[in-house]
Design goal:
Elements (H helix, E strand, L loop, with lengths): L2 E6 L7 H16 L3 E6 L5 H12 L5 H8 L1 H16 L4 E3 L7 E3 L8 E4 L2 H8 L3 E5 L2 E3 L5 E3 L5 H11 L4 E6 L20 E3 H9 L7 H10 L3 E5 L15 E4 L1 H10 L9 E5 L2 E10 L4 H11 L7 E3 L7 E9 L3 H10 L1 H4 L3 E5 L2 E7 L9 H11 L6 E5 L2 E7 L3 H11 L10
Parallel strand pairs: 1-2, 1-9, 2-6, 3-6, 9-11, 10-12
Antiparallel strand pairs: 4-5, 7-8, 11-12, 13-18, 14-16, 14-17, 15-16, 18-20, 19-20
Helix pairs in contact: 1-4, 6-8, 7-8, 13-14
This protein binds adenosine-5'-diphosphate, aspartic acid and magnesium ion.
């Protein structure tokens, strides 16, 4: 017997027919004698629809009221799944974010999980009741509904798994695991059977949207065993633990797996892209100590996340250009803030470009392989793709390129690092 948290994403619960299939998978787990909690997303497209309603009602919407609107999508699917399970003769009940409660820090629209009071949930699970929980939702210190940022149901599931000390947290989605890159872009992407928390964290943070970044850091912190697998299986499918998904494991476990299978770690594990960044260039900034601090301090204080930064070589007359990226959603705010301080900062002009994409290659193997960045630059140059900015970490290299070249760049790099699946037909 195991205690399992199962999470189903939007496509998996898009309509009553799909919810019935989900109920079948859940029932199979419970029938195996396991204690089960299920976390569900809103139906595919529903959260986007609700976000648009908020924008139409008030472009400068209050995040607290936005949360009231967007949290409703998950409420519908959790109620529908509980009803479907009951119709199949299972004991099931829903627990909304405020009922559990999932306590969050109050930043509306982007709340962080503080704690989850699990004793009641554990009691109910131990009594053989299937708990159905809307993902994405929490409750603030003030008792108001919060939501955890787009993709936040993954984080809800991992947080609940940590709170009930689950043996496993299974994330069911519309692909059957984590791939070397988005399989919708590269048909030859390969499924990765095991990936370490560190690599998954880095991949998620640079755009692999299969898991929300926070869900991975929470899993790493609480040592939750997370598995990514497909809900698109036939009725009566075997229980999840016999399905070949991707398991997210600790670095120690990863080392053991590699040793046992006598495999060498590749330099690059996966490639991700992110079209949500924007590039900002400040021209003719005074080339003197303190100038960049004066630019980035107010941005930091305003909570604007600056990612890639380049300070160009100084021109004559003690001036230089400073280039950096911010999330597209923050661009208008960043621009207004800098324009406001134009005189004090002493720059000449702000040039912005939202038609950029960040392409990142990620892998623990980079620590022991050299030439990873050089391979990237060469592969891109061979296809005439211009690199506008670069940033690196110990296990990642990212470049900023023209958005129109995203798909081409991802494909070219996938081949360059030897990640393409072999041709079955060959
Ligand atoms: P859900 O609604 O189940 O939460 P998401 O749409 O958030 O699903 O995430 C699944 C999607 O993530 C896949 O359909 C796929 O296009 C995309 N994706 C991006 N990068 C990867 C990757 N490396 N491996 C698998 N899927 C990926
Ligand atoms: N429904 C929310 C979203 O679309 C949360 C989630 O599905 O994870 O972002
Ligand atoms: Mg998701």
């Amino acid at each position: 017997m195991a205690r399992i948290v199962m999470k189903f994403g939007g496509t998996s619960v898009a309509g009553t027919e799909r919810i019935r299939r989900v109920a079948n998978i859940v029932r199979a787990q419970a029938a195996g004698g396991n204690e089960v909690a299920v976390v569900v997303s809103a139906m595919a497209g529903e959260t986007d629809r609700l976000v648009n309603f908020c924008r139409e009602a008030n472009p400068l919407y209050d995040p607290a009221e936005y949360d009231v609107v967007v949290a409703s999508g998950e409420q519908v699917t959790s109620g529908l799944l509980a009803l479907t399970l009951q119709a199949m003769g299972c004991k099931a009940r829903s627990w909304l974010g405020w009922q559990l409660p999932v306590k969050t820090f109050s930043a509306h629209a982007n709340a962080r999980v503080d704690e989850i009071d699990a004793p009641r949930l554990r009691e109910s699970m131990a009594a053989g009741e299937i708990a159905v929980i809307p993902g994405f939702q929490g409750v603030s210190e003030e008792g108001r509904i919060t939501t955890m940022g787009r993709g936040g149901s993954d984080t809800s599931a991992v947080a609940i798994a940590a709170a009930v000390d689950a043996d496993r947290c299974d994330i069911y989605t519309d692909v059957d695991g984590v791939y070397t890159t988005d399989p919708r872009i590269v048909a030859r992407a390969r499924k990765i059977p095991y990936v370490s928390y560190e690599e998954m964290l880095e991949l998620a943070s640079v755009g692999a949207k299969v898991l929300q970044t926070r869900s991975v850091s929470l899993a790493m912190k609480h040592n939750v065993r997370v598995q990514v697998l497909s809900s698109f299986v036939d009725d009566g499918a075997p229980p999840a633990d016999t399905l070949p998904g991707t398991m997210i494991v600790s670095e120690d476990e990863m080392q053991k797996i590699l040793e046992e299978s006598n495999m060498e770690r590749q330099s690059v594990t996966g490639i991700a892209h992110d079209k949500n960044e924007a590039r900002v260039v400040l021209t003719r900034v005074p080339d003197k100590p303190g100038a960049v601090a004066d630019i980035f301090t107010p941005l930091g204080e305003a909570g604007i996340n600056v990612d890639m930064i380049i300070q160009n070589v100084g021109r004559d007359k003690g001036e230089t250009d400073v280039t950096f990226t911010v999330p597209q959603a923050e661009l208008a705010r960043a621009q207004a803030l800098l324009e406001d301080k134009k005189e004090a900062l002493g720059f000449n002009r702000i040039i912005t470009d939202s038609k950029v994409a960040k392409i990142s290659v990620v892998g623990m193997g980079m620590k022991s392989h050299t030439g990873v960045a050089a391979t990237m630059f060469k592969a891109l140059a061979d296809r005439g793709i211009n690199v506008q900015a670069i940033s690196t970490s110990e296990i990642k290299v990212s470049v900023l390129i023209d958005e129109d070249e995203t798909e081409l760049a991802v494909r070219v790099l996938h081949t360059a690092y030897g990640l393409d699946a072999k041709d079955d037909a060959a």
